[in-house]
Amino acid sequence: xxxxxxxxxxxxxxxxxxxxxxxxxxxxxxxxxxxxxxxxxxxxxxxxxxxxxxxxxxxxxxxxxxxxxxxxxxxxxxxxxxxxxxxxxxxxxxxxxxxxxxxxxxxxxxxxxxxxxxxxxxxxxxxxxxxxxxxxxxxxxxxxxxxxxxxxxxxxxxxxxxxxxxxxxxxxxxxxxxxxxxxxxxxxxxxxxxxxxxxxxxxxxxxxxxxxxxxxxxxxxxxxxxxxxxxxxxxxxxxxxxxxxxxxxxxxxxxxxxxxx
Length: 261
Ligand code: SF4
Prior knowledge:
Blueprint lengths: L2 H13 L26 H17 L12 H11 L4 H14 L3 H5 L3 H8 L5 H19 L7 H4 L7 H12 L9 H9 L10 H11 L5 H14 L12 H6 L3 H8 L2
Helix pairs in contact: 2-12, 3-4, 3-7, 3-9, 6-7, 10-12
The chain binds iron/sulfur cluster.
The site of iron/sulfur cluster has 11 residues, from loops.
């Protein structure tokens, strides 16, 4: 992380202590969140924590699998990863990052020039446009530094909460939400954290924020993604004997046989 981005992170942490009008009724420590979180029971929180601990034990070195060396590179890699694999993105980004070193260099280029480096990735034309537009705004509005807070990140083209959570958690060390992708969506159902398959990802994120300890939000996103990516795949070849699942996989048969998640 650069010293400027460290400063940005500090600024955001200070700001995050403020109470947001829409989050004022959330539990202590969550009142800066700009929306109300669902109410959860102590028992639900306790079970969720046990799942988080089991995942941590099984994936002790979990981290973001996208390669990056600066916040703007992580932002770009995350934009590229939508509906694509991290491995595929990591194959394309060394060439891209070598050709464009700073947000200003992306802004000074064109979407067509960026396209040439990301052609192996699905939806590359739209993603190249999003990269160009987001880097242009980073330069024009944020002085060339990726903003280290949710509200500003969400103003960038191609950035929704999932991308913003990845950037905040991994480039700035800020827990302002939980990354929820299709792996997490599948897993929370199979592990009985939610009571409907394919629940809306926004609802899942709010529930996980209410259930899980805030300092671990980023880690929980990583470990759930890893479990979903490598063990609890869409059509898992498991005997329900995974150490995490023996205890918590209450909806595995339903998910596998009925919802085809
Ligand atoms: S038992 Fe299999 S299907 Fe169930 S959560 Fe574990 S890996 Fe997924």
